[in-house]
Amino acid sequence: MRRLSIIAIPLTRPLAHARSKRILTYYQFQISHPPLAIPPFSTTLQQQQQEKGGWQSGGRGEGRKGASGGGLFARWMPEGGVVRWASAKAAETWAGFGKQEKGWKVCRSLYQTGERLVDRMDFEELALKSIDPSLGPRVTVATGSGKRVRGEGGEEKGTRGQIPLVYPPSISSGSETLRELRALVSYRLPKHRKGFYLWMMVAPFTAPFMIVPVIPNIPFFFCVWRSWSHYRAYKASQYIDTLLEHGSIIPEESPTLDAVYRDAQHHAPQKGQQLQEDEGDHQSHQRQHAVLLTREAVPSIVGLFSLKKSAEADVYRAVEQARLRVESGRTEL
Question: Region Disordered: what ranges (predicted)?
Answer without folding.
Answer: 44-70, 264-289
